[in-house]
Amino acid sequence: MVDVQFSFREESGSSDFAFPSPPGQPPPPAAMLHLQKQLLRLRGSITPALLSLHRVLFSTAVAVDAASRGQFSAVDYLVNNCGLTPEQAVKAARYISHWKSPSKGDAVLAFLAGPDLGLSKADISHVLVSDPRVLNCRIDRTLKPRLDGFRAHGLSGAQIRSLLLSSPCSFRSCNIHEILGFWIPFLGSTEELIRHAKRSDYLLKANINKVVKPNIALLRECGLSDYEIARMCVPNSRLLTSNPERLKVILARADKLGVPRHCLMFKQAVTTAMALHTETMASKLKSLGEIMGWSPDEVAKVVRINPVLLRYSEERLRRVSKFLMMVAGLNSKYILSKPTVLMYSLERRLVPRYYVMKVLQEKGLPRPKSFYTLLPIKDELFRLRYIQPHKGVLPGLADAYTAACNGELPEARYE
Prior knowledge:
By secondary structure, this protein is mainly α. It is built from 23 helices and 2 strands.
């Protein structure tokens, strides 16, 4: 094994700076040695950026030197044939540095770009950056059988491509029949699996029997159905892929929010407990009481009704509460009885609908007595009930409401 040291001594001191050649690689040409020394003199110290630059320079030099001697260069192949950047190629080169020729890689690239998969060069680059070991796979023993496995579970060519791009490792390392055979029925469809995989590929990497199934069993004990568990995984895939002991801690933290298990809102308590650490949760509870002027018991009551409130930022809660109390005229006791009002968007719902209500009031037109009753209604129904009937009297109301929803009216900007 060659271990050549590249050194120089600064004129102002006696410290030597040295970079070893990567194991198994020949020393770089004299010109590269000179360039490395000049870089070190310019920087005066070794930094992570300089080390990274050294790796790229060294690998480039080795590639040039190898090419000049007719030898295979892994970095050169990854850059020129696979579309990787020099930095990416340096990191991936160790997986194919043992090649004597590019014939195996050429066959894999042809298969990936061929009619069975139809990946573009950009797609192939994406796959190889994530898992360069795909280039070492045998087509007859690994790639083709895995492709057949995807098809056996009903995946189309487009779905296979989508799944491969979302989780490149799934094409080489996972047990396809176990993974697809479990997740497709549990999530309800192939489309749902792909949707989850696009958000996170943890579902395809987690151990089904040791991790996923025990976590599902724990959540079932809390009264959650498989459908509810699957829905909870859309934003929180780690709920099923984390160590079961960690999930037990999360469930215990959810219990402290006071929402009974087997209650409809318990799933919201679980997702909230997963998003917040114990200290953060305590801080959120305290700030919610300070913002709204509620006692600890009142805060606990609100959280039991809607634990998701704890996931909102303090700034958002302050702005919404200020509008509701100072502009809309709702006091803290009223909000305590209807805490859902704090969850609506200030810009997209609260301000625009309050604007419409005030216009109707000023014109003496029919309007609801309570501002709160305007909020849960979907936008289409709101327009149908409170804007369309008055288009003859107030022809600009619809446009004004739309502008308010886009934050374009002065009344829509509350700080």
